[in-house]
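User: Quick sanity check before I run a bigger batch. Here is a single chain. Can you write out its predicted 3D structure?
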Amino acid sequence: MLMNVQPSQLTIHPAKATLLAHIRVLEPQIAQLEEEKAACQYQIDQYYRLFRLYLGDLLTQTIDLQMQLALNKAQKTGRRSDAEEAQNWRDHFEQTNQAVREAIAHQPTNLGETDEHELRRLYRQAVTVAHPDRHINDPDRTAQATAYMMRLNDAYKCRDLVAIRRLVQELDDGRLFAAQPETIYDLEELRQWHRRLTNRQTGLQTEIDQLKADDAYRLMTANTDLIAHFSTLRDSMLQQIDHLKHHLQSL
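Assistant: Done. Predicted structure follows.
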């Protein structure tokens, strides 16, 4: 009589079992780091979004004056390098204008504490399953996971909890890709997977440390009086604009 053996009852090679145990520990730790990195980047992005909201008019005015100075110089010298420099300032002016308009039009939602907690929890849950590194041996799955992570990160940046819930539901429903049992991987594939995870863990911690060292992050997380901070910057920018105007008028 044949026994009905359940997958969980199948014997796994001890080396594979050890690697799988390590992987199961690493994945939630890495998801936590991924979320921490996204949270740090959000703080930095939020600083520059506020900067453009409060000082976007002066920023575009400053760049416009720099562009006029560069154009004036290019016309006088006729040098190709000066013409390229003027074009760079023109491109910078257009990009800054666009960034200021986007900062005004697309302000992130301010979530309450409960919703913020849910957003971060669901993000970690999704990253654990859908990160491209988990599917690196399958090009189609890797492409799907990469596209999915772009959507997930965009929703996180916008604090769009509804979109995050929808993306997690796609995973739960198997609409992105059906889950694969870990036992299908051979020993070498598991070793490679484990190596990728440990490398990613180290890389993420380095990236987080770099983000936390950023002045914008420090300002956003140190209970800084941002109104006073931007007021000081405004005074400095007004002085710079005045200097650029005098320089332009003297030519």
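Residues 1-9 have pLDDT under 50 and may be disordered.

User: Great, the batch can go ahead then.
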